[in-house]
Each structure stands twice: as C-alpha cells, then as structure tokens.
Write a structure and sequence with these properties.
about 30% helix; alpha/beta; single chain
Length: about 110
Amino acid sequence: MTDDAMELDPHGDLVVRHAVEGGVATVVVAGEIDSHSAPRLEETLLSLVEGGANRLVLDLGGVGFIDSSGLRVLIATRKRLGDDADALVLRHPTQGTLRLLEMTGLTEQFSLA
C-alpha cells in the first residue's frame, strides 16, 4: 500500500483510516458519522479523489450511527466519482446503516459488499 493514515475527528467521535494502492483507496471508518464528524470524513474522501483515487472502498463495519449528514457525504462522493456503479463500494455496513439506506431508497446508488 502506498499511503496509510489515520485521522480522528476533533470531537473524538470518528476514526478514519485509509490506505491507497494504485487508484483504489480503502477507507475504514469507525464511530459516529453526524453533523460534527461528517466534514472530516468528507475532507478525507475528497482528498483521496483529488489525489487520484478513482475507486473508494468504505468499510463501515465500525460505524455505530450515521445521520443525514453522513448520507450527504456518501451521495456527494458517489457523484464526484462519476457514473461507474462500483466506484464507491460500501463494505460491511452495519444493520443501522443498511436500514437508513433502505429507508431513504439509496441502496441502489451504492455497491454493497
């Protein structure tokens, strides 16, 4: 892997680790994605895309809570990556995350693994 980093949200509610290999960035997210922590996640994802990642794999297995702010980040990132349905993969989404995606009709917008 060519890059490996970990970032902690200033409020301490979110941990974001990422590694990049080629054009694929794997991002492991743990904690809560809400209005306080979503900007940190968005900044990380945007930085990865601007740095040349053309595919993002988000491991959400450690996300205990996600609100509309988190959904907005996922949608914006998906749009930034273009039309390829596999450009943004949500890996190991928790039951709560899956339920929110289903309730909002967004399961079709993301590849789930």
